[in-house]
Design a protein that fits this description.
Elements: E1 14-17, E2 38-43, E3 46-59, H1 67-70, E4 76-82, E5 96-104
Parallel strand pairs: 1-4
Antiparallel strand pairs: 2-3, 3-5, 4-5
Length: about 110
Amino acid sequence: MPDGLAGTATANTDYLYGHSRVDAAVFNVLKDLQPGAVASIGTANGTLSYIAQKSLKLNKAEYKINDEVTNAIPNPLVLVSCYRPVGYNPDVPTVQNIVVMLQLDQEVRNGDC
């Protein structure tokens, strides 16, 4: 897929999916990420810095058809995980996803990415 890799010149949206659970998991804190927060992604060519724009809680089927999430535009990063609020019963399947929309920080030197 052309432009399918994260970088400073990508023409598409990049997605990272990760688990959240009651126990330790990579995206447990995703639901707490606020607009303006910075996330960095390491690549073979350097580190990319992104700024969180907004968070959305969407029904599981909805995030796959939400234009705001699925439109291919230059330099965004979308982080997706199950939404598990505090006190969520771990034996019950989740019905929502947390989706965080980030944009590449053009003011930060992002290496040769």
